Amino acid sequence: MSEKDIFVLGIETSCDETAAAIVKNGREIVANVVASQMESHQRFGGVVPEIASRHHVEQITLVLEETMKQANMNVSEIDAIAVTEGPGLVGALLIGVNAAKALAFAHRIPLVGVHHIAGHIYANQLVQDMKFPLLALVVSGGHTELIYMKEHGVFEVIGETRDDAAGEAYDKVARALQLPYPGGPHIDRLAKQGKPTIDLPRAWLEEGSYDFSFSGLKSAVINTLHNAKQRGETIQPEDMAASFQASVVEVLVGKTIQAAAHYDVKQILLAGGVAANEGLRTQLQKQVEQLPEVELVIPPLSLCTDNAAMIAAAGTVLFQQGKRATMALNANPSLLL
Amino acid sequence: MKVLAIDTSTFVMGIAVVDGQIVKGEIITNLKKNHSIRVMPAIEALLQQCDMSPKDLERIVVAKGPGSYTGVRIGVTIAKTLAWTLDIPLVGVSSLEVMAASAKYFQGLVVPLMDARRGQIYTGLYKVEGDHVQSIVADQVILATEWANELKAYNEPILLVGNDSSLHEATFVETLDRVQLAPATLHNPRPSELAWLGINREPEDIHTFVPNYIRLAEAEANWLARQQERTEC
Ligand SMILES: [Zn+2]
């Protein structure tokens, strides 16, 4: 690249992480700071929106300062500010959006609004160049989506959940197994120790659909546990975790492979917090081998969970495409991709 | 000193630019519209009208609550971020004190109030002293009926201020002899008063500065109540 380097400051506050980062040319992380509130929400068994919003106000300037310090830069040296405008918790999003607008205003820096899922997908750009067309499987506490991209900045949602997100199903099943919040990592760990011996449904939905549904599976787990208890039988939690995980992973991976073949993609990207799940990573790696032309990219865990480097990476592309937000930018909790 | 004042704690959006002894400009609206969409454009427009750039600002003063949780957070977030990035002092002032300041020439006691639902109000008691108001009873959340009773102890005329005061007027009139509602033109908190209140005050630590919500988040209050039960058992 002969042109001048582009530095983008990303800000992300859509859920329970207050995050800021600086990314160079959309690919290189210069600084990346994430302040997690997880511990604060643990006692409630889930994220409490009002408490999340309060924490964001406490953290926002500290996180920004730490980011600038890590980068050894001043805000005035930044070329653009990218902020998550949605989807997410509205009160939480508002903190990032208003901080971003204040910074952009103070230094007359261009501002770009970024969709949270676009951010998750562009986390991959920090690891490896994206090759189009590509397919992204985004799985997190709030999302389960298959997104087809034929070029930069253009997203087509080809499949999404019709009820619970995969991460949500993990949390609910974990609660049924009396595991602490957040449940995903605990189920993943238990699943490794157990065997998928319990018969649970797979929600393939109608032929050719890339949509997902996890509420039936969640109910099946809860009913099976309940019935066993009534009969005085014990189910090994390890086996239940393994059986539940096997059902989720089979459907997620199965639909991804089908869609990748159908759309003839060059790359499959895994994104979102559930990408940390070892069962999912392993199965996806194994199944992608069926498609020798397709490359699988899984970013490191720190880039799979919510962070602002991914928002800066996505924001860089949008900035280069000329997208700009005004001082009237608002948080949009149900923003469409 | 060039001061920018921001108040978004109720439906009233107030932005003021004060330069030394001169109030250069104010934007005040009392609309049920989204602060997040309107505050930054209003600040941008007002500074432009005043021929000022953000770098000219020397102090930010913000209404820190109580009020709408989301509303207060929008103002406080903008104020903190501007103060941090422009490297200038930040001052937080009680949103109720700003309301009371509009009535500083009233002879007696001033009760600013905001509706806090289910019969409750955010309020405080302020006494007019010369050209300013002094806090007598700290800002609190209380049942309007209970507050009216407590105010019986003061043998002075009382003025109710704030756009929500008409909602609770009857409660106070029933209980108190010398109480009146401020005229409509005094109900919107004035951002220029906010700027005046903050111009000489000790600045906050920008990073740790948070709104004064008065109330805990509901989930937190419930959780603490459960912990309490547990220890009592
Ligand atoms: Zn996410």
UniProtKB/TrEMBL annotation, chain A:
Subcellular location: Cytoplasm
Binding site for substrate: V138, V139, S140, G141, G142, D171, G184, D188, N277
Keyword Lipoprotein listed: no
Residues at which Fe cation binds: H116, H120, D306
Pfam families xref list: TsaD (PF00814)
Keywords: Acyltransferase, Cytoplasm, Iron, Metal-binding, Transferase, tRNA processing
Broadest EC class assigned to this enzyme: transferase
EC number(s) from the headed UniProt entry: 2.3.1.234
Superkingdom field: Bacteria
SUPFAM superfamilies with a match to the protein in the record: Actin-like ATPase domain
Biological process, per Gene Ontology: tRNA threonylcarbamoyladenosine modification
Regions crossing the membrane: none
GO annotation, cellular component aspect: cytoplasm
Domain Gcp-like positions: 28-312
Biological function: Required for the formation of a threonylcarbamoyl group on adenosine at position 37 (t(6)A37) in tRNAs that read codons beginning with adenine. Is involved in the transfer of the threonylcarbamoyl moiety of threonylcarbamoyl-AMP (TC-AMP) to the N6 group of A37, together with TsaE and TsaB. TsaD likely plays a direct catalytic role in this reaction.
Family the entry assigns: Belongs to the KAE1 / TsaD family.
The protein's name: tRNA N6-adenosine threonylcarbamoyltransferase
Protein's gene: tsaD
TrEMBL record, chain B:
GO cellular component: cytosol
Residue ranges occupied by any Gcp-like domain in the UniProt entry: 32-223
Alphabetized SUPFAM superfamilies for the sequence: Actin-like ATPase domain
Protein name: Gcp-like domain-containing protein
Taxonomic superkingdom: Bacteria
InterPro entries the record matches: ATPase_NBD, Gcp-like_dom, T6A_TsaB
Gene Ontology process terms (BP): tRNA threonylcarbamoyladenosine modification
Pfam families: TsaD
